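Here's what a typical entry looks like (DUF1499 domain-containing protein):
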Amino acid sequence: MTPGMATNNGTGVQRAAKRLRDRRRSSRIYYAGGQPPSFLARWTSRLAIFAAIAAIVTAALHRLHLLPTPVAMTIAATVIAGALLALAMATIAGLDIWVTGRQGAARVLCGAVVALALLAVPAGTWLLSLSWPQIDDVSTDLVEPPDFTEAKEERTPDANSVEYPGERFADIQRASYPDLKSLILPRTADDAYELVLQALVKLKYKTTLELPPESDENSPGFIELSDHSLILGLVDDVVIRVLGEDQSARIDIRSASRYGQNDFGRNAERVRAILKEVAARFEASVPDVDNQQAVKQKSKLKASKVRGPGSKADRRRPDLSRSDIRRGLGRKASPQGSYAGRVPGRSQERFDE
């Protein structure tokens, strides 16, 4: 072996040993307790807080009808994506802090908590929707539901259609809401229409369309209105049809959501409330014959008691059939304050003496 070959072999061994040391050094984890928070730790809290603020502002503007529903839904989807990203960043930054001891644990904890709170809202809503029928349109007439007129102009192309979905929704409604049926009143169509308007005023609904029924053309009356949910302000459209039949009127109500595939029972509850109030208005307008007869009998008995032979009114009123009173009517009235005028049968001369 020549000296040159020995030198090359020695250099190769040294290089191999150096590469091994560098590999071990690169895979070794160092403690970095005094190091500032990492990039992920800083931005996970910032992203989560920004998403929370965006969600609150969007919900408030939509409830005040200052933000269209499609725009609000787009922002809500962006907020959910931001919350998922913030949660992933918090997980990675948390593992880094656990291993290296780097600063930023408070930031990571804040980001993770806010992100989980944001994700809990859609997750809880989805779980709650599983307990309700998957429909967004209900009607008391499933064969020929009332048609919307004003809602056609109000709904955008990305909203739910105003056409009734068909037999699939009808089967779900029959199984879930069997109590939703047409209301038939023994009144004319005009009277039933007025009862419906009174019920809507009582329930504080503002109508957007009022078409009274026309008896000459035998055309039904229609009433349309819009209602909003309490928290998010989601819009539901309602149409009421009053159809006159033989000496009676038939009232049908349809309520449908503009957005979403599940109404959480809100439309069925609204239809029940309107039907109940219309029935209450009808019962209040029907005269109670039995009650009126009872009131008349009670008034007669009260009058007989007041005007009876032993009543105070009869005691105050003189009985002209009595002989002593008839005789007293022909006498001259006694002076005021004299005892003779107050004691019958005593002569005035005796006391004058």
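Residues 287-318 form one domain.

More examples are in the samples folder.
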